[in-house]
Amino acid sequence: MSSTPLPPGVPRPPQNVVFFGPKANCTLDICPVQYSVYGYRPSLAANVAFIALNAVAALVHTYLGFRWKQWWFMGCMIVGAVNSIIGYVGRVMMYYNPFNFSAFMLQIICITTGPVYYCAAIYITLALSIKYLSPELSRFRPQLFYYIFIPCDIVSLVLQAAGGGLSTSSSGQSQIGVSLALAGMSFQVFTIVLFCAFFADYLIRYFRSGPNEATRWKLFFGFMALAVLLTLVRCSYRLAELHEGYSGGLVREEGLFIALEGGMVLAAAYCLMIGHPGLVFKPQPKDRASGESESPMQELQDYPH
């Protein structure tokens, strides 16, 4: 990180210090913050706010999940929100020591992976919606929405994790690590764009077929679509940031991170409180009596192959 250009007047750190990586030994007492990986102290107020707002999202989705017995959707949303909370705890730790490598790894892994769980919830929900409404209008079986897209998300997640591990363990010097992480994020953006195309195609075909759906269905689809678009904006930003690398300009712009990472993902989680399957799906009578609902796989098994 020492090759990053510094503003005039920034003092030189002591000799034999390590700025970034598992052996980092800098602290704010001996090293200027400009030498840290981000070049700034993460905002304490913003990160505490993200922790609180993600905790609220987790609690609301827990309530909605139990109210509507949507266990899969609830589980995905809670795991995503908890991931974000842990990630922002890491950024709070970096406020006190921007050179804390463990905190850096905590936040980079948890904040990066959070949206994957939200996407999984959306993929399953759209498949159930197609089956419930007009499966004959879909260009392929509803099951394929998660048989294809969830494995794609897993592949992108593995690539990003492997690339991040190689890059950070080598203090950002591993070109293979950067290339792997970039490939993973690129594949994630491609997957979401492809999903958006199929999602839009089905909605256009469905509403052109002349249904007179209640307002709740329009709200459901509208806010789910908005959540997908917000996630796409976030992933596009992270792709551009990763393309520049840790020595680029985007990684040092905290305002962009707050707006396009934290803000987009949090807004998507809140949109999915309205774009929630419980708004439009009702538990079957047997489910009300037993307090249980079928898993997404079981719900779709009676769809014709």
Automatic annotation (TrEMBL):
Name of the molecule in the record: Sphingoid long-chain base transporter rsb1
Matches recorded under PANTHER family: PROTEIN RTA1-RELATED, SPHINGOID LONG-CHAIN BASE TRANSPORTER RSB1
Pfam families: RTA1 (PF04479)
GO CC entries: fungal-type vacuole; plasma membrane
Annotated membrane topology: Multi-pass membrane protein
Spans annotated as Disordered: 285-305
Subcellular compartments: Membrane
Highest taxon in the source lineage: Eukaryota
Coiled coil start-end: none
Bilayer-crossing regions: 44-64, 71-89, 101-124, 144-162, 182-207, 219-237, 257-281
Source lineage: Eukaryota, Fungi, Dikarya, Ascomycota, Pezizomycotina
Record keywords: Membrane, Transmembrane, Transmembrane helix
